[in-house]
Amino acid sequence: TGMVYSLYLLFSGKIRGGVKNVMGPIGIANITGKYARSGIWVLINWVALLSTYIGLFNLMPFPALDGGRLAFILFEAAIGRRINARVEETIHTTGLLLLLCLILLVSYFDILRWLSF
């Protein structure tokens, strides 16, 4: 719930800088390179933390993520029947497209941040 609340704060503009302060794949690769130069134990700790965050993010109840699929399973258990496969597919596809748009947006800000150094 803490991660969901953090995302709410981020996208509602209550965190200073909003999405501009979030790191995407490019920013993560940049930071990982810096940690790699700092020593093996620093890198191992970073990778462990990053893996934990990615795992928790994947469990969010958002379509196209594992947590979204889990939410569908729980919903189906609650109503006692399966949801139409076409409806579920449409929801997950839409979620995936939104997630890809978010990755592109965050990567754009990563590139701007990288170019400003």
Description of the molecule:
It is built from five helices and no strands. It is elongated and about 55 Å long. The mean pLDDT is 85. The protein has 117 residues and is an all-alpha fold. It has helices at residues 2-11, 25-38, 40-58, 66-79, 85-115.
Helix fraction, binned, reads over 70%
Strand content: under 5%
Oligomer: single chain
| Low-pLDDT ranges | none
What is the overall number of helices?
Answer: 5
* Biggest sheet statistics: none
The Rg value, from CA coordinates, equals 17 Å
The 3D shape can be described as: elongated
Gap between N and C termini: 35 Å
- Please give the number of β-strands: 0
Structural class: mainly alpha
* Sequence of secondary-structure elements: HHHHH
- The average pLDDT is 85
